[in-house]
Amino acid sequence: MAAVILFEREVPPEYIAEWTLHLSKKKEIDVPGLLSALVFRISQEWYALETRYVLEITEEHVVHHIPHCKTNFIKGLVNIHGKIQIFFSLGDLIKTEAAATEKPVKNNFKRMVVTEWNGAVWVFSVDELYGIQRFSLDDMKKAPETVIKSNRTYTRGVFNWKGKHAGYLDHELLFTALKKCLL
Questions:
Q1: In-domain check, residue 139
Q2: pLDDT in tens for each of the 183 residues of the chain?
Q3: Is residue 137 in a domain?
Q4: Which domain holds residue 72?
């Protein structure tokens, strides 16, 4: 009986005015100029990939090698939720000569990143995953000359992040290169 009395009482005018004011305020939408990116480490380098191309992060899966595969960065096939997807080494695809000489860092933080671009799903492994980070376009700096002059550059720019540099990957160049290698 007390519940009926509580819910059938008159609504105070102050309450209606407060909620009317609250609901009439303009909603804040995404701030233009901010990028949302997944930040991860491969070997000793940090990278960022726009989150809209990331489907999920998963534990490592068994990679089934493809016999007679002609590219050194397509490593095989993985089963993600019952679907066979192409697994590639992002480190092998984007490496520079300097990165090739670095010793790999050993850890237990490896994960697989499942991505999608124009209907094609690609999976790659990362050594460490930081998570989602928002960057301002104003904070992006031009990539170093050594990266720009490389014949395999997939970096749009560089962000200063937590005292480190994270290379912001150009998704279009990256996924187009992957697609071309399958043709």
A1: yes
A2: 777 777 788 888 898 888 888 888 776 655 566 888 999 999 888 999 999 999 999 999 999 988 887 778 889 999 999 999 999 988 888 874 444 444 555 555 789 999 999 999 999 999 999 989 888 877 788 876 555 545 457 888 888 878 888 889 998 988 888 888 776
A3: yes
A4: 34-182
The tokens describing 23, both together, are 């609901």
CA-to-CA dists, residue 160 to 47, 60, 128, 166, 167, angstroms: 11, 29, 18, 6, 9
Rounded alpha-carbon distances, angstroms, from residue 81 to 4, 59, 112, 114: 49, 12, 13, 11
Question: How big is the CA angle at 78 (ends 72 and 84), to the nearest 5 degrees?
Answer: 115
Evaluate whether 112 touches 61 at the Cβ level (below 8 Å): yes
pTM, whole model, 2 decimals?
0.71
Q: What Å distances lie between residue 16 and 4, 5, 13, 130, 147, CA to CA?
A: 20, 19, 5, 44, 59
Q: Exposure of 42 by Cβ count < 10 A (0-12 exposed, 13-18 middle, 19+ buried)?
A: buried
Tracing tokens 């970096």 back to the chain, one arrives at 155
Q: Does some domain include residue 12?
A: no
State the sign of the Cα–Cα–Cα–Cα dihedral 153, 37, 127, 120. negative
- Based on the structure, what is the number of domains in the chain? 1
Q: Is residue 109 part of a domain?
A: yes
> For position 92, which CATH number holds?
2.40.50.180
